[in-house]
Amino acid sequence: MPGSCAQPLIQGIQVLLQGKVAELRAAMTEDFSLGVALEPMIVQQHLNKNLVGLMEHLRQLPVALHFSGHWPSPVFDIKAVSISPTNVILTWNSSDPAASEYKCAVKSEMEKETISVVHHRWCNITDLHPATSYVFAITPGIDNKTWGDPKVVNVITGKMIGSQGGCDLRGWSRPWVPELLEATDLEPIPVSNLSVVNTDLRKVTLTWSNDNDTASCRLLLESLGSHEASIQDLVANISDLKPGFKYSINPYHLKPNETKGASLSTKGGLNANDTEGSQAGSPTAPVHQEFPSSGQQSRVTEVLLVGLKPGTRYNATVYSQAANGTEGQPQTKEFRTSLPLYAPQVFDITVVNISATSLILTWKINDSDPSSVYTYKIDVVGEMHSFNGIFGEPHAIISGLRSSTFYSIRVRPFLDGTEGTPGFLQVYTREFMRSSRSPFLLSCYMPGPDAGPPGPVSDFRVTMVSTREIGLAWSSNDTESFKMCITQEGAGKSWVETTTNRSITIGGLFPGAKYCFEIFPQGPNGTEGASQTVCNRTGSASKLRDLLKGIPQMKCTPSAVSDIRVVDVTTTEMELEWQNPDNASEYVYHLVIEPQHGSNPTSTSDKVITLRGLIPGTLYNITISPEVEHVWGHSTSIAQYTRPSNVSNIDVSTNTTEATLSWQNFDDASPTYSYRLLIVKFGDASNATLVTDVGITEATVTELMPGSSYTVEIFAQVGGVMESLEPGRKSFCTDPASVASFDCEVVPKEPALVLRWTCPPGANAGFELEVSSGAWDNATQLESCSSENDTEYRTEVTYLNFSTSYNISITTVSCGKMAAPTQNTCTTGITDPPPPDESPNITSVSHNSVKVKFSGFEASHGPIKAYAVILTTGEAGHPSADVLKYTYEDFKKGASDTYVTYLVRTEEKGRSQSLSEVLKYEIDVGNESTTLGYYNGKLEPLGSYRACVAGFTNITFHPQNNGLIDGAESYVSFSRYSEAVSLPQDPGRASTTVLALVLWCFAPSGHRRPAAYMPPSDLQEGCCAQLSSPRS
Fold it and tell me: What residue stretches are annotated with the Fibronectin type-III domain (predicted)?
């Protein structure tokens, strides 16, 4: 500014500020940024002592001085402290305290001019050509982009050294630079590539690159709180971080700085190399050290921060440090830990203590570390009044209640602005008693007469007003407890504060807004006295402007916006709203929307905007800058992802207990997505959740139930915090489990099979039973069964053939799917063989034997095991199994006229009879042979005999009667009896009889004696008559 313009300006300031120093000072404490267009050198020379004192006070206040009428002084003492073939480092000095940035321009005869801007008094110019003359120009600048005059210096880069002794020396380092920096106290080059590599619920990895001049680094980590509550509960100062090392650090294990806002030093922080006094496993020591394969030590530092709080914003500032401790310009990175995937839920609300007018509550939240992430809003509803409050910890003291009153209490958790599931409690306050007796619950002690309410407060007044706070005070002799209701006029917003003091400061107010304060004295028995009310308006942003009106070139910078909130977000749109602390309506808000590539500026005069045409699943950094009267305020930024698009083309392949799923997402940002899978079993309230790694579009879900119906919902996730609006859904069934094995049981004397098996695990809709034998095949659908308690399934297969092998297959069916069949071969049982149509053929062989011929029985009811030949001298009735117990001896004794004379066992023939075979048998009866317990004795001459045959599919013998058949336990049927056959006379016995008869006839009658072989008497007489008659 020309000197001729300074004097009128100074005189104007003196006139305007005369008598208003105190008022100006009070106004400037109200958190405004004031831009004053003053020439500081002239002010220092011409202002009187009082004004100089005021200016000194202004410097101590948070006021930004902009010298809009001043250009900075040129730099001087430019030096090239390092020169290499491709690199030059310049330093310089400046006597102008207003200079805050510098243009570094470099140009050669063969190259175009390049310009870079730095904020410190040195610059590092790279990518130069060897042995080339360059002109470097340094131009100082101030915040309003006013640039001074440049100063130039000529520098020739170093020559490239050729190969010597087989070593190719094409480049060389600057080993003297650290010593030079140490000797000259120059700032080291800042770190570069400060990045957040990994973000999780409670851990984050930071990496950065270090210049060769950097001896170590200092990390300043500050928590900025969650979106719901911006509370700074951590300031960790971590020093001595060496290049090339990896560290694992829990910043919450460090001792915090003594006071908020105190100067940051290594005191109370962590020295990474100072392990003395550290416990084993503490984060003070590096995890390991890395060296690149080239042999030069890596210049990348990696710090894993653990033990962080979910959903919390942090600011990481890294300072490079020279060997002498001089620090370079800081590099800053803000990040936020991920939020849990589940909604918060309050449970187990407990009343720790209760009295007539207050109670202490505690509760639990379904997260292990909710202390700095969650806020809780408590709604208290009584019979006559209600109120609410906000708390940052899972416990609260609720006072100002009425005695002997029923209250309903609701505790609502909030996580990053999202309300979770509340918890509820109902409780009675105790009765207030003035005697020494202990208070009892209402149900235990009836209340006595009410005490009178306290009198109203007096001298209720406003003691202090600023843009954000109003101080109040009052007097009272009746009570020690007060409740105050604060209401903002026109906003419909009110809340309650309680105190036991006689003064209070209400903060968190809006500038320029009117508030009314109503105070109620609280009686000891829950009664309230009459209220008193006072109203007042907070300070306005225009107040300071009015005080400074008329000062040339003096402007006020608008306050930065606050409480930027994402109201709604979709795949391509985002609705934002924010607050204006100045409560001014004439502001214009400039927004810069920056995705990963490019930026898009826009402006609005409203405090809400909807951004459209965005890219799904993309992180946008949105910067909002207020502007009024062409003066821009400080910027405020927020980072927000758009939602990913829904997944599609879900494909499922299954076995009995697993499902392999694959899907697609066609967003450009899909390589950065992870996916959350929610698997829900049909008919079951339980579910399972699976989260994939980034970029993975397939997953295998295990431990499923066979044959069961499931639905999978797949949500696309980006950044660990933003999900697709709707999931992709797919229903599927696992394969049913096969029957492990089954048993076959025959049914005695029935053509049927009983099948038994254990129900397979999981669910089923039934079974398919297939029975086949040869060309015959039959399939049957069976009902389902449950696998609970190892339930056994039983079914009977009927209408089969006796003694037949069947191929049986059992297949589990569920959801239209069929398991692998379980197979077995089973044979049906046997029964009595069918009786033959023909009777046996019996022929006489001699006077004491016969021959019996018969055909084998049909084996359709089972293989024929034996035949028994039965003789009878009785009638030709139907034989029964009872005759099988009689033998030849029984017959001879007269015990039975029927007996078993011979037993034929088919096994003795060396082969079994097939169904189609009909064997012929011929038995000699009376040959005195023995088969088992049966004797084949001689027959009686002149006797009449019939024969039948018994056929056995199962023959059982009496255990007590050796070799005799147990007819009741045997499977037997009988043929019909044959025709009777009469045996002839014994030939030897017939000749003896004739000789005896002749001798008898010719013997004198007195000497006749009966012979041993004499015919009957009538026959004797006939024979004798013929012998005595004369021959003709």
Answer: 74-161, 345-435, 456-541, 643-737, 738-834
